[in-house]
Amino acid sequence: MQVLGSFLLVLVVWLTTTPLVMATEPVRLGFLLFPGYSELDAEHRPVGSMVSTLELIVTTAGYSFHSQVLPVARLRRGLRSGQIDIWPGLLEGSDLEPFVIESDEHLGLVGINLYHRPGQAPPLWPDSLRGRQVILVTNFAYTDALLRTLNNPALNIRLHRSSSHTGALQMLMMGRGDYLLNYRSQVIPASRRLGIEPPPNILVTERPLRLVISRERDDYLELRERLDAAIAELRAAGVNLDQTMR
Predict the structure, then answer these.
(1) Which Gene3D superfamilies match (predicted)?
(2) Is the distance from CB of 190 to CB of 167 less than 8 angstroms?
(3) Is residue 242 part of a domain?
């Protein structure tokens, strides 16, 4: 409701003070499934605070849009091919960098935590990983610094991967790994689905959440400029755009 109210206020001010110059080509917005932030409602429409916030930014920038919630592999293919124009996400550590650019403005922080089973001593990063087994989630980006640590031969870390956040959490709780390195915003809903409390954890890193824009779009540089300007304009008007994932 806060985002909707802010949207209506800013839209009224904008329409009454600024010439309406809409871009001719709509933008295609892609979202990953993050419950509460971007998900599908009962009628399979994209909803959530991330969805409404990005749609507000895009509208303020002068574009119409089409929103989709997609599996991670399909979203990545869409950014490479140009079927998706914008994704709010974490680019660092992925193989998308040659195909996209990022906004200068950011919308908050993405946290990645190290989870362990109840009863275990809290780990120390990265010393506690030495000779241990760490579970990751396939196709989700981890930062360059995290990947360097995980692949450091001196630490002798054995990596296991799961295709889903729920599966990764099950692997941890069943003892098929010593630690789980995952996005905190994904572990909470995965825990609910399993009917358990989120495992104890430590924060490993927080990175800025930016708009990732496909280079396949002809006006991708102009699109970035207009999106950054829209974010600055909305913030100046007092709109809360923060999507930090706690």
Answers:
(1) Periplasmic binding protein-like II (3.40.190.10)
(2) no
(3) no
Q: How much is the pTM?
A: 0.82
Q: Is the pLDDT of residue 16 over 50?
A: no
Tokens 């990645």 sit on residue: 112
- Number of domain units in the chain: 2
CA distance 36 to 186: 10
Asked whether the beta carbons of 1 and 47 are under 8 A apart, the reply is: no
Q: Are 67 and 31 in contact (CB under 8 A)?
A: yes
Give the C-alpha separation, 246 to 119, whole Å. 23
User: Are residues 168 and 143 part of one domain?
Assistant: yes
Segments forming the whole domain that contains residue 175: 111-206
Whether residue 18 is predicted with pLDDT greater than 60 in this model: the reply is: no
Q: Domain containing 132 — which CATH number?
A: 3.40.190.10
Between 126 and 139, the more confident residue is 126
* 8 Å CB contact between 246 and 111: yes
Q: Are residues 50 and 92 in the same domain?
A: yes
